[in-house]
Design brief:
- Helices cover 80% and strands 0% of the residues.
- The protein is mainly α and 142 residues long.
- The protein has one domain.
- Helix 1 packs across helix 3.
């Protein structure tokens, strides 16, 4: 909750690309801390980093998708996010299975893997934007 409030305050003040990168890195670092911690300070810091990292990702991704694909109907995005929500509903079952098989420390591996995937996708989006900017011929003024 505090991460969402802070994200709404920060969004108009910081470049969104940097905020998205910082959010993903904070989430990855928080997951790593939660995987390795054995005390209350590490648990609190890990939860704060994960919560603060995950909070601004959704509004930033929706903004980036809307800008990148303005010709799609908004209902199309609802379908995509409904699919993501189904995965979110499946996650507790998977996390319970992981905890029973390999211990509770391994529960943070799934969000860590998701955060790393988001980081890789972010890098690919930036690469695609750079390559498409260089591929367009310069416009000539007539």
């Amino acid at each position: 909750m505090f991460g969402r409030v802070a994200a709404q305050w920060i969004l108009p003040r910081v470049r969104h690309a940097y905020l998205l990168l910082a959010s993903v890195i904070a989430a990855i670092f928080g997951c790593l801390i939660l995987t390795a911690t054995n005390n209350q300070f590490g648990a609190v810091m890990g939860v704060l980093l994960v919560g603060g990292g995950f909070a601004p990702i959704y509004p930033l991704v929706v903004e980036k998708i809307g800008r990148g694909f303005p010709y799609y109907h908004p209902g199309f995005y609802n379908g995509i996010f409904s699919f993501a929500m189904a995965g979110g509903l499946f996650a507790p079952c998977l996390l319970g299975f992981i905890a029973s098989m390999w211990g509770v420390r391994m529960v943070m591996v799934l969000p860590l893997a998701g955060s790393i995937i988001v980081f890789v996708l972010l890098l690919l989006i930036w690469l695609e934007a750079r390559l498409s900017a260089h591929a367009q011929p310069p416009s000539s003024a007539s």
